[in-house]
Design brief:
The protein is of the alpha/beta class. The protein is about 45% helix and about 20% strand. The chain has a single domain, classed as Flavodoxin domain (Rossmann fold). It has a 5-stranded parallel β-sheet, with helices on both faces.
């Protein structure tokens, strides 16, 4: 059982999403004795954001690339290989300004390689990276899972679900902690809810 653990928060030890993603991995370890975990910290070492040269490196003919682009291609292939090899992906994904961190967006952009992660057919795009489960440690300062007005401001979870679905991943599970900036009591309630959902992971696997 191969797990890819991704963190994207820039807050280090103060990050709620890092704590929750680590707890998800710990719960999975308890129920999968053969678990192997690969870890990538996008907050500490973010991928370069896409530009024309990087896009050419990702998708172009290797023989036409310069040395810098070949290095980018090798790095990009590593990111794609990690994702494809994982049976389970755990993503720490805080909400920043109603969306995901730019470094997490850059990682997803790097994964979107035609012929490896998806392909276009006469019937439209087809994801090639299915058959895995993705757990998302979703943290938000406010409340965005409730009324239609609240959900309309959510470009974090909604984007992740659509993007992963485009890759072919349909088993996406959110471990959510909301209201973390709304006072101590709300923060405690949000983290308690996330802890309960993490405990349920182990219970389902044990059953």
């Amino acid at each position: 059982m191969q797990v890819l653990h991704i963190d994207s928060s820039v807050l280090g030890e103060a990050s709620a999403s890092r704590r929750i993603s680590a707890d998800i991995v710990s719960a999975l370890r308890q129920t999968h004795p053969d678990l192997t975990v690969s870890y990538r910290d996008l907050g500490a070492a973010p991928p370069a954001h896409m530009d024309g040269a990087i896009l050419q490196a990702m998708r172009g003919d290797v023989s036409q690339l310069n040395d810098a682009q070949r290095a980018e291609r090798a790095y990009n292939d590593t990111l794609v290989d990690e994702f494809l090899a994982a049976d389970i992906v755990v993503i720490g994904a805080p909400m920043y300004n109603f969306a995901i961190p730019t470094q997490l967006k850059a990682w997803l952009d790097r994964l979107a390689v035609p012929g490896r992660i998806f392909r276009y057919t006469e019937k439209g795009p087809e994801g090639l990276a299915g058959g895995k489960t993705v757990y998302i440690a979703s943290t938000r300062g406010g409340l965005y899972w409730g009324t239609p007005a609240e959900q309309a401001m959510d470009h974090q979870e909604s984007y992740l679900k659509v993007m992963l679905g485009f890759f072919g991943v349909t088993d996406v599970r959110f471990i959510r902690a909301e209201g973390l900036a709304m006072g101590d009591a709300a923060r405690a309630d949000g983290m308690k809810k996330a802890s309960g959902d993490i405990a349920a992971i182990a219970e389902r696997k044990a059953a």
